[in-house]
Description:
alpha/beta, D-Maltodextrin-Binding Protein, domain 2, five-stranded mixed β-sheet, about 15% strand, globular
Amino acid sequence: MKKRIGLTWMATAALLLGACGGESQESSGSNGDSDGKVTLKFHHWVKEDVGKWEETIAKFEEANPDIDVESIPLVDNMTAADYLKQLDLLASAGEQMDVLMFNNSSELAKRVDAGLVAPVDSFMEEEGVEMDEEYNNAFPQIDGSYYGLPMKSVVNLVMMNKSHLDEAGLEIPTDWTWEEYREYAKKLTTDDHKGSYFHTWPDFYHMVKMHGQSSGNMILNEDGSSNASNPLLRESLQLRYDLEQTDKSSVPLSESLSQKLNYRQQFFAQEVSMVPTASFMITEWGEFTPEFEIAWAPWPKNSESDPIRGVYGGDLISIAESSENKEEAYKFIRWMTTEGIVDQSVWVPSWTGADTNTVLEDLIANTPKPEAVHLESLKHVLSSTEKVETFIPKGYITEALNEMNAEAELYLLGEQDLDTTVQNMEERVQAVVDANQ
Length: 437
């Protein structure tokens, strides 16, 4: 396996942007080695000490001696948004790409529209793979084609500091509502810490109640029309305001923005007791090692009568349209999303052939502190959460979210009332829709 330090690669990319496209392409050359091996360049954002790429890829290379895989993390901060910016720069420079990772369907769709990603349907058909049977987190098709294979399976949940729960005399929730979440946050708040933390991502934390309904959980509908009038969007904003401003049980958005707070730091430093997040946090602790046991609760329901629901997502691994070795790239991504991700023992696989209980035990055993994970509550969340409907949104969803967020922040920062906020959001999102018809 070949490795390259991400920041060095980024610096190289910056230099390449100053050169002409033809020279950059020529300098890349063929991705076949002199000994006849094919070298695949695999771009992603997960650093080596988290992803364990070297030892994982070595197993693939041992079984496929004619293929080398070069792991290239483009960022050091494990932030997918920053990675995607670097990826777009490399694509503009005409750099060699073979295998790419994406963190959600929206970002994938943008790169499909830009011609960066190749469909995998012909390879799947030749192998006889049925996406929905092989993977439990199959991304929807884009214009009738699949543009990659699902890697990890991620579902919304709430991570909790069990020591704080015990001190407050609270049980780990197994079935609860957002009203109960609010009550928990009040009871967990002390002079030393807040009971709750909502991060700054607008499509997640401004819309928490929307994520619990069976469909219609994005700012746009599947046909591209506006969903800003969804009453659960208003209720989500009201809930966040009540937590942060009325109850003072959740870290205010103003502090998150002004101090550039990080949700991992807030949770692992025990500044907060609960964080609505997703199951990637089973293992993705960053540089932190918890000094307490992490409990897990299902995504809170909107009403008592609702089933436990959550948005399932996860990373997708794709083939670059510009790759000269698509067959070898498919062989790698197929292995990486089946045997490879199980051997990697970092994430819960989307592959239906994996034994979930065994995988969970292996994942936890490979964390820096296995005893910090409350396994019983985690298994309950993963087994009890019903999947909501998802779709690939229109490419202008980011613009719609930006417009929504601009108004939501004014409300959450106390600069305008909720009625004005909702009205302005509806008008601004509709303007985005109209401009893209």
